[in-house]
Amino acid sequence: MASTPKGAAATDKRRLILDAAVRVFARQGYGGCRVSDIADEAGVAYGLVYHYFRSKDAVLDTLFLERWNVLVEMIRDVERRPGPVAQKLHAVAGFIIDSYRYDPDLMKVIIVEVTRAANTFGRTHLQEIREAYRAIADIVEDGQRRGELRDDITAEFAAMAFYGAIEQVLTGWIFDVLPETDDGYDEAKTFIVATICDGLRHGSPTTSD
């Protein structure tokens, strides 16, 4: 019988711990759990968690950076593709919403414990969070250069409004403010893009008298 390579076994244990941490953080909240809770959920010895991660903070850091780096790379890939700006923003919104759709616990942890935690992890990861905003802003800027979008609203502001709208919808699902259905997920992608892009199109008023 072939044995499992040591490197593969270590990777499996590390992944087991991370997956368990997602469930614990989502269920109990980051502040309401201990490393021992993660170990119990994973079915491993308490000390094994510390073998792979120096602290509970390091576990959350890893979970966030794994997913966030994938998001940033995806946005950059969309930015490089040809096509209208609305199509690109729909792809970004679709990726984020589908990430929640298929892994709600992880997205709940990222939103509640990191991106909305301005005084703790959110501040720690401001550079990474801003990188995603910058990537979205680059898509908006390209649309402005091509005349698809008005240019009297800064791309940076539009990017924050766009991501903020997505995050608010996800928060609505997390806290059961919005109903979760397959149609609702698909509608959200379209509604978010329409809300932002229609406001950025030429002829949309910026102020009212």
Give the structure's gist in a few sentences.
This protein is mainly α.
Radius of gyration: 20 Å
Tell me the structural class.
mainly alpha
Sequence stretches where pLDDT stays below 50 over 5 or more residues: none
Write the CATH homologous superfamily of the largest domain.
Tetracycline Repressor, domain 2
The largest pleated sheet is described as: none
Secondary-structure element string = HHHHHHHHHH
- Give the total of domains: 2
Binned strand content: under 5%
Count up the helices.
Answer: 10
Average pLDDT reading: 89
* First and last CA, distance: 79 Å
Shape: elongated
CATH topology of the largest domain: Tetracycline Repressor, domain 2
Helix content: over 70%
Q: What is the CATH level 1 assignment of the largest domain? A: Mainly Alpha
Number of strands: 0
CATH architecture of the largest domain: Orthogonal Bundle
